[in-house]
Amino acid sequence: MQTKYIVFTSENSPEFIEAAMALREGRLVAFPTETVYGLGANALDSDAVRSIYTAKGRPSDNPLIVHIADLEMLKPLVTGIKPDALKLISAYWPGPLTIILKKTGIVPDVTTGGLDTVAVRMPDNFIALELIKRAGVPVAAPSANRSGKPSPTMAKHVLEDLNGRISYIIDGGPCKVGVESTVVDMTDEPAVILRPGGITPEMIERVIGRVELDKSILERKAVERPRAPGMKYRHYAPKAEVFVVSGNCDDVAGWLKNAISEDEKSGIKSVILAAGEHIQEYGLNNAVSYGSINNASEVASNIFRLFRECDRMGADKIYVEAIPKEGIGLAVMNRIEKAAGGKVIQAGK
Ligand code: TXA
Ligand code: MG
C-alpha cells in the first residue's frame, strides 16, 4: 500500500478533503492531536477498525479511544451519562481527557475490545477536529506507532513505523502535550483514573471531588489484569534497555557517572536522559537534556522523541533521571517506568 504524506495547509485543501473522505470510507488516516499522533479509522465500521490492529500489530483485546468533534457526536455512542461526567466534559473538552462511559449498540465490539463501555475524547487540535467534522463520523484512534514502540509526537515518527501500512499521514507539526490523554472511568463511583495524562488528578478533583488512581498506576510493574487493558503490555518502549534512576541530585549524578564509565569499559553504549540543569552542574557525559527539572510539561513534550533518538543512536541502555510525580510529572513517570519495565534504581541506597 502506498502511504500518502500530506503536510497540512488548510482544511479546505483538496488533499485534506480527500483524506477525510477516505477515513469516512474505511481507510486509515494518521493525524495530529494535542497529545500524540493518532491512527484513525471510522469507529462505526468494524472492518476499518480491525485494520488498525493489523497495521499496528496490536492485540485486539486492547480497546480504542473514539474521537469526536462536538457533543452531538457523543449522544448516539453512549448511555446513562452521570452529572459528574458532564462536569468533566464541560471543564476539559476539547482536551487531553478520555472518559469511559457505557456504550450503545451502534459502537462495534471490535472498537471496544468486546467491553460494554467505550472510551471517548474530543481532542484539542484544530486539524483533528476538522478531520473528524469533514469525515462526519466518530474516529477510533490509538497512538499511531507500531505496538510496543514509543508513541509518535511528530509525523515523521508515524512514517518510520507505519509507512506502507496505512493510507494517509497528515503532518501537523509536533504535538504540544507529548504524552497520551488521561483516561478516567466514569461508569462507577468514585471515578477512577486508569491512565494518568495531560489532565492531572488535581484538575479532576477540582471539578468532581474525589477520584481514585487505578493500582496499575501506583505499581511500577505492569499488572496482570489492569482495568485499561492497554496498560498490561510493555509499552512506550525504545529498543534499548531503560532504567529509571531516582534519589537526590547528588546521589543520582554520582550513580550515573559511575554507570557510564563502567558501561564504557565493557563496550556498552549507554545514554543518559536527565534535567538540563543537572547535566551542566555535574558535567555528565553521554547525556541529553529532556528539559528542566522544574518543568514537567517540557519533559512530557520531549520524552517519546528522545526515546526514539536513543534508538537511532544505537543505544544499548538508557538511564533516565526521575522527575517529581507531581502534576503532569505523574504521567511522565508512568510512561518512563513502563518503558523501564519496573527497573527503578534508588541511587544512594
Ligand atoms: O492521547 C491519546 O489518548 C491518544 C490520542 C491519539 O488520542 N490515543 C491513545 O490511544 O493513547 P491508545 O489506544 O494508545 O490508548 C488507549 C488506552 C489504552 O490503555 C486502553 O486500554 C484504554 O485507553 N481504553 C480504551 N477503551 C477502554 C475501555 N472501554 N475501558 C478501559 N480502558 C479503555
Ligand atoms: Mg498507545
Question: Could you list some keywords that capture this structure?
Answer:
DHBP synthase; alpha/beta; binds magnesium ion; binds threonylcarbamoyladenylate; 349 residues; Rossmann fold; five-stranded parallel β-sheet; twelve-stranded mixed β-sheet
Bound heterogens, unique: threonylcarbamoyladenylate, magnesium ion
What's the helix-strand series?
A: EHEEHEHEHEEHEHEEEHEHEHEHEHEHE
Give the class from helix and strand content and strand pairing.
alpha/beta
Please state the second-level CATH architecture of the largest domain.
Answer: Alpha-Beta Complex
CATH class of the largest domain: Alpha Beta
Count of DSSP strands: 17
**Helical proportion?**
25-40%
Termini distance? 53 Å
Instruction: Tell me the strand percentage band.
Output: 15-25%
The radius of gyration is 20 Å
Largest sheet: 12 strands, mixed
CATH superfamily of the largest domain: DHBP synthase
Count of spatially separate domains? 2
> Could you name the ranges where pLDDT drops below 50 across 5 or more consecutive residues?
none
Tell me, briefly, the overall form.
globular
Return the CATH topology of the largest domain: DHBP synthase
Our count of helices gives: 12
Arithmetic mean pLDDT: 94
